[in-house]
Specification:
By secondary structure, the protein is α/β, with parallel strands linked by helices. 44% of the residues lie in helices and 13% in strands. Bound molecules: NADP nicotinamide-adenine-dinucleotide phosphate (NAP).
């Protein structure tokens, strides 16, 4: 087993965009795949495109209890070298207008599912001496305080991405020394169906290709980057953010800060 050349990977949201690209790049490197998503025919297309490796489709809705349970069972039962928590959905709209079922969907697919799948996969990886988990977040994890621009609202979406970054960092702290590599992948805008599926046309914006995002993630795993930001040229900026986080965390004390007295 090697995380540089994984033998078996499970990818959620493999039916399009970034997840499909993970499947293609890993499959072409000789990695067997379990590919998850709701669109069966898209997953079947991967089986046909990657005849050199074993590709097993797993059809299910991560937002539904049964769908999630089936993928959790695969994560717990299969000797995975790599789990890619990639499936995602967003509903950019004012928080006041966000219907409860759409809020639940975002939280379920972007927080409950990746956390549960990592929870199922990690014990086996640690017991086998190593493995890797990629949690696909996004640069908006760092954009909570950014001006809204043309978006009508994105509070729920931003919160899930920030959750995935903190989750990945904490998992790395807990298990990095035991061979588990964890990465929060933080792309900016990527040319996939993601925005189109919610009726937004971002084709006029400069966008990175899914191919480049995935190539960066796989290289980032080899570089042991816990946060991989394919579109940020100055790595130091990210290191400064995390150093500032730790400085604020470390400076806290039980004494009331003078400005609140
Ligand atoms: N595109 C961007 O600009 C961008 C930027 C930053 C981060 N991201 C993140 O990148 C990840 C991949 O997105 P993408 O850009 O590749 O978009 P995409 O082409 O729309 O792919 C999303 C994938 O998630 C799956 N999915 C969505 N809801 C699901 C559910 N309830 N159950 C199971 N699978 C579900 C979809 O499969 P089915 O429909 O077949 O189920 C699809 O394969 C997402 O997590 C997104 O948050 C994207």
């Amino acid at each position: 087993m090697s995380t540089d050349r994984p033998g078996l990977a499970l990818i959620t949201g493999a039916s399009s965009g970034i997840g499909r690209e993970f499947a293609l790049q890993l499959g072409r490197e000789g990695c067997d795949l379990i590919v998850a998503g709701r669109r069966r025919e898209r997953l079947q297309d991967l089986v046909e495109r990657l005849p050199e490796v074993a590709v097993r489709p797993l059809v299910g809705d991560l937002g539904a209890q049964g769908g999630l349970a089936a993928i959790v069972a695969a994560c717990a039962g299969e000797p995975l070298d790599l789990l890619v928590n990639n499936a995602g959905v967003s509903h950019y709209m004012s928080f006041l207008d966000l219907p409860p079922e759409k809020l639940t969907e975002v939280l379920q697919v972007k927080v409950v599912a990746p956390t549960s799948l990592a929870h199922a996969a990690a014990p086996g990886m640690v017991a086998r001496g190593g493995g890797a988990i990629v949690n696909v977040a996004g640069m908006l994890a760092f954009g909570g305080a950014a001006p809204l621009g043309p978006a009508p609202g994105r509070a729920a979406d931003v919160s899930t991405l920030a959750d995935l970054v903190a989750f990945s960092q904490a998992l790395h702290e807990e298990f990095g020394a035991r061979g588990l590599r964890v990465q929060a992948l933080c792309p900016g805008i990527v040319a996939t169906e993601f925005h189109e599926r919610q009726g937004m046309d971002l084709s006029a914006f400069p966008r990175m290709s899914a191919h480049e995002v995935v190539a960066a993630s796989l290289k980032g795993l080899r570089l042991e980057e816990v946060v991989c930001a394919p579109g940020v040229p100055r790595r130091q900026l990210l290191d400064d953010v995390f150093a500032a986080n730790l400085a604020a965390f470390g400076e806290q004390s039980p004494e009331l800060a003078p400005r609140y007295r």
